[in-house]
Design a protein that fits this description.
Length: 137
């Protein structure tokens, strides 16, 4: 019998405002755009279609730029904790990234956009669910 080899997931962004972010990480402010960027809507759809790796217990992810709000997006009709880890089998993101892209036009790396486009802007959850992953924020 062959053991499954764990895939090391790559975080889309490392920002100090994200769960487990560090003060030396890039501030999300530097990634905010005044207008939606090319393929932003498709990237949001792709992120929403991601596979949830696990559920966290807590009060939700705080919106550091609007403290009265929580960065907890709706995925499949349910509000998810913004710190919920999600993947497509290659990349890793907290569910709250969806919120920050929608509200603040936070840009993501071109390499991720190209990857999402190559996958037809949709995560194959069934395929991802069969994988074994190593990840941390």
């Amino acid at each position: 019998m062959t053991a499954n080899v764990a895939v090391k997931l790559r975080p889309i962004l490392q920002c100090r405002e994200f769960p487990f972010g560090m003060i030396h990480d890039l501030s999300m402010r530097t990634l905010m755009a005044s207008q939606p960027w090319e393929h932003q809507a498709e990237v949001i759809d792709y992120l929403r279609s991601g596979y949830i790796l696990g559920y966290l217990m807590g009060g939700g992810l705080r919106d550091w730029f609007d403290p009265a709000c929580r960065a907890n997006p709706i995925i499949d009709g349910c509000v998810q904790d913004g710190a919920t880890p999600m993947t497509d089998g290659v990349w890793l993101w907290p569910a709250g990234l969806i919120y920050f892209i929608e509200k603040y036009n936070v840009r993501v790396p071109q390499a991720f956009i190209d990857h999402a486009k190559a996958n037809g802007w949709r995560v194959d959850r069934e395929s991802v669910a069969r994988g074994v992953y190593d990840y941390d924020f």
